[in-house]
Amino acid sequence: MKQTAVAVAGISIIPRHVLGQGFVAPSDKLNIAVIGGGGKGYSDAVNTWNNGANNIVAICDVDWNRANKAFEKFPLAKRYKDYRKLFDELKDFDAVTISTPDHTHAVIAMAAIKSGKHVYVQKPLTHSIFEARMLTEAANKYKLVTQMGNQGASGEGVKQLETWFNEGKIG
Prior knowledge:
6 strands, single chain
């Protein structure tokens, strides 16, 4: 059993150069938990997974019917209905995506930060300046990366306007 454990550990930390060009070492992949696996949460999971560049290790959703598409896409991911149970039981992951109903974003993001997890959360991040400041302070304290999703600022139209502005076509 000890030899198997050592072998598995060795496989999980193989450097990229040993595998050859075009391969991603298991140690170079992020392990990500998805909180809110239905709707926007599904697309966030797929985009974060990035065709296998990262691992989706857990999916949490109170409505498993709504999250079923995510469960089917990521059959090896552990399933949870309560994010608190996910944080209590699953420790070996790097980051979370949070795509739950708006009023739960700040509370779940704070729980993730206090658990030492990097956070990607959909808008709105918070419902008050106080909540935003508390999350900022916690992310700084725990030295974690956080990001809020706002697709309205990253679409092709915005990029086109930025190009025109930078070229001096508009001011």
